[in-house]
Amino acid sequence: MCGIVGYIGTQQAGHLLLEGLTRLEHRGYDSAGVAVLGASGSALKVAKQAGRVRDLTEGLPKRFSGRVGIGHTRWATHGPATDANAHPHTDAKRDVAVVHNGIIDNASTLRRLLADDGVDLVSDTDTEVLAHLIARSESDTLEGRVADALALIEGTYGVAVVHADFPDRIVVARNGSPLIIGVGDKEMHVASDLAALVRYTTTVAHLDDGEMATLTATGFTTYRQDLTATANRAQTIDIDPSAYDAGDEGGSFMHREIHEQPRSTERVLRGRLDERFGTAHLGGLNMDARETRAIRRVKILGCGSAYYVGQMGASLVEELARIPADAEAASEFRYRNPIIEPDTLYVAVSQSGETIDTLLAVQEIRRKGGRVIGLVNVVGSAIARECDGGIYLHAGPEVAVASTKALTNMFLGFALLALQLGRVRDLSIADGKRLIAGLNRLPEQIAELLEREDELAEAAARLAEADSLFFIGRVRGFPVAREGAQKFKEITYRHAEAYQTSELKHGPLALIDESVPTVALVPTDELTDRNVGAMHEIAARRGPLVVVTHEDVDLGELDAVRIDVPRNERELDPILLTIPLQLLAYHAALRLGLDIDKPRNLAKSVTVE
Ligand code: AGP
Fold first, then answer.
1. Cα–Cα distance between 348 and 573 in angstroms, integer?
2. If you placed Cys at 457, which of 28, 180, 375, 587 could pair as Cys (CB 3.0 to 4.6 Å)?
3. Ligand 1 pocket, 378 CB below 6 A?
4. Are residues 17 and 161 in the same domain?
């Protein structure tokens, strides 16, 4: 949430910062700004405004030169998206410029104190106080001034600071919001996300919480907030920069990411399946067989779609390993003073590895002595680093706000976990091998489904006309319905509600008429007949139906759009049922002419509570 970039080196900073911001826009896109510093003695130049990075680029003053600078793309927390609230924020004399990601919890107290002291606050933001506090510090160094200001602040932050009196440096600090330093040739970069760095360098250092750094054109140093040195070193990472390039020919990352799934699913499975013993090998869990056998419960925590996939994962664990498992929204978990049990395995699931609610849940569990593993996509992210072990999802960079390929790999991560847990318990070798064969079939089956995009686009066109829709499913299908509704509402802004098919008659059926379509999940399973019965009840009330089902399901004389998905092992059904729902949401949003990758009010990583 909110993107930060910084550059110091031999090139003009302005255009590099704007390019970096364009690549970070998925983190927040309601306003953007940059500040640059020229040669010693020259004034700080700031350009910022509400709107997208492209608006800022078009409006950038002609004379905007400087080889040091910082930039920001905002997702509003304090105050609406206005020019004044856009970052960077400055002090009254315009010596200091600050960009910030996070939330300053004691901002209103600090704003009051500053105002009482005669400071004229020109924005509604929490961040502005930082600029004034840095300006008021009497330390001789910029590092000291920033540390003085941070000492007064409660909350989370990734910050980058430039100062007209110290034009040879950028000072950055992290507490809860990611910051990555990129080492170039006679230049240094900093950003809140690798997306902004990989075009320039793959030699990077992740700052730790509580750590600060000074970047000069020739290198960087890291230290704690008491200014004592730390030993953070840059490492070269293996990453394909083109993975962060703009979306496919339609221009959408979401479409590209949906179509990457045949390959990305192969990556999460690669090297982890043991066909001989019908099990999975997950070395990163950091648990031996005795510890694995001692697990009595599995508790999965995630937010939004990661929570819904967590529910799919809980079913997998219960079915395959016969361990009681459930999923809970990480955002609620720690507020109900949960009982942390030593024989429970806690699983945090997150694409970004940054979601603050999930991170705080992990910290709460670990504080109370619980063991947490992470199912995380972004390598080296805060959640990955905080956990006792984990499974990297290897989905590759995911840029679209609506998550697709990462969720699919989360499901497969749970399948691998359930397989490994199951095989040290009662899961037979035959069942283990059956599951492995099913997992190996999945990439091709996903590819097969994606080839039927036109069919799904047609169905989506009808759904796009409705103001309100239901997504329904039962047991394994219910989390799929929740995820389908989530994806649809997220990018089409239509009201989409998920319900258990079995619960329809207990209330929501009252809403069904010809204007309210239902997307129903009717796989071949022990509930098929009951589900088909419910479809007829909806049709009898003239409710339009899209039924996502298997070829062998007999829907009778039902008036419905039918989408058959390939059959796999029943435990793996949820993921093949989910793929068409991604395309339904995508094509409905496309038809409505919406900005698919950057839906209103949302951001890719939710780093504020
Ligand atoms: C998914 O489409 C959503 N954008 C959102 O619900 C997301 O899954 C959630 O915010 C969790 O993100 P994470 O996986 O990065 O933790």
1. 23
2. 587
3. no
4. yes
Q: Is 131 helix (H, G, I), strand (E, B) or coil?
A: helix
At residue 548, the 3 state secondary structure works out as strand
Cα 467–chain centre separation: 27
Evaluate if residue 249 carries a pLDDT over 60.
Answer: no
- Cβ atoms within 10 A of the Cβ of 558, count? 15
Nearest CA owner, ligand 1 atom 4: 402
For the CA of 304, the nearest atom of ligand 1: 6
Average pLDDT over the chain reads 94
Tell me, rounded to whole angstroms, the distance of Cα 517 from its chain centroid. 29
**Residues 229, 230, 233, 239, CA torsion sign:** negative
pLDDT of 133 above 60: yes
The pLDDT score that the predictor gives to residue 246 is: 65
Question: Does one domain contain both 60 and 147?
Answer: yes
Mutate to test the pocket of ligand 1, among 193, 253, 305 (most ligand atoms within 8 A of CB): 305
Q: Which of 27, 303, 376 to mutate to test the pocket of ligand 1 (most atoms within 8 A of CB)?
A: 303
Domain range for 62 is 3-244
- What does pTM read for this prediction? 0.89
Q: What is the pLDDT of residues 142-200, one digit of tens each?
A: 999 999 999 999 999 999 999 999 999 999 999 988 899 999 999 999 999 898 999 99
Q: What are phi and psi of 541, to 5 degrees?
A: -105, 20
- Is residue 357 within 6 Å of ligand 1 at its C-beta? no
Q: Beta partners for 389?
A: 373
Is there a domain that residue 278 lies in?
A: yes
Distance from C-alpha of 581 to C-alpha of 381, rounded to nearest angstrom? 29
Find all residues with CB under 8 Å of 291, minimum gap 6, and list them.
none
Arithmetic mean of pLDDT, 370-389: 94
The enclosing domain of 398 has a CATH number of 3.40.50.10490
pLDDT tens column, 195-248: 899 999 999 999 999 999 999 999 999 999 999 999 999 999 888 887 777 666
Q: Dump strand ranges (E) for 272-368.
A: 273-274, 279-280, 297-302, 325-329, 344-350
597 within some domain: no
Query: 489 and 354: one domain?
Result: no
Q: For ligand 1, is residue 490 a contact (CB within 6 Å)?
A: yes
The total number of structural domains that make up the chain? 3
Is residue 519 within 8 A of residue 470, CB to CB? The reply is yes
Edge-to-edge order in the sheet of strand 188-191: 44-50, 31-37, 68-74, 3-8, 188-191, 180-183, 203-206, 235-236
- Of ligand 1's listed atoms, the one at least distance from the Cα of 403 is 2
Q: Which two tokens stand for residue 377?
A: 């996509």
Last residue of a domain, one of 244, 279, 314: 244
425/457 same-domain check? no
Residue 311 dihedral angles phi and psi, to the nearest 5°: -65, -40
